[in-house]
Write the structure tokens for this entry.
Amino acid sequence: MTFDTLTIANNTNTVLGSGVINTLPKNLEQLGITKPLICTDQGILEAGICEILKDNLQDNVIAKFFHSTPANPGEIDVFRAAKMFEEERCDGVIGLGGGSSLDLAKTVALVSTHPGELEQYAVHRNGGYKIGSIAPLIAIPTTSGTGSEVARASVIILNSGEKRIIASPQMIPKVAILDPDFTLSLSPSLTASTGMDAVSHCLEAICSPVKNPSAEAIGLVGLSKSIGEGALLEAFENGSNEKARYDMLAVSTQGGMAFSKGLGAVHAMSHACGKNTELKLHHGTLNAVLLPSVLRFNEEHILDKLPKIRTAMGVNANSDISLTIEELNRKFGLPNNLCEMGLTLEMIPDLALHCVKDMCSVTNPRKMDLEAYIELFEEAFQK
């Protein structure tokens, strides 16, 4: 077996390659974890991935499973899992699944060592400074898009109903195990949605006005691999292509590393839409639908970035990248607009108000306010 070890500035020990799930026992031992709480969901349980994980545990490791993670987890889900962590006397947390399971796991690791409600730790409350050491944490993604396995943030729906970011370097997983074998069975639709999540991370990070050449370069590599070299389209059209699956897991992690530079209006809007727990909207699908409108809105403020973005995407020097993204969305069979996802025009004022409080607005290349978000939502509903 061969695999790559990726040493990155956030000190996550990241292993990538087919079969690297067998590194789990060694990583558990190094972190001193003998009774992990594994945060996952029903889909992962039914797919048999939990059994594969169990088969890779040493006899002295007793794993407990919380497999009730919903799409867009909330504070109530975090504390349900944290109660299980406490009652079972767990000593570490493993996130197994997509972005929802990884974000839940990270937040459980936080509240297991930090008292009180979650809002006090949220970025909009300047809560990061309150976050010290959390429970030992391992991330095992089963989709290629979230980047949460190497990122410092989780996104949770608070008891107030707002979907907010909780972020601190302390919340970066100690270990990320990226095994493309877990992604081979992903459906084409989920491959597309999660893949466009990674693409949106790379694009918004590149466009962010924050100066971080390393993060921007990583984002360009991810954009080149996913779009320019066609890894995402190949994974969508041929899910059994191991190289495409490997490449997209790498892109996911590159996106997660890149957005240390900041995100933008796409994510502010996606967070606002995602707080609707009745619709259960997929974060990556929302990002894909919103991305063209935001790119057009920001265009005059990213003119210096567009040449290298076009080069990375493999399109000609005069291409409209928003149209390139729309064409990809059509190939993937993704919705054309927010109306097709069940949202209504009457929701716009509330959605826009949520956006202006979202910290992703701060790093959008064009200054955002309530009127700007209303304009963007109106386009995203009608396009």
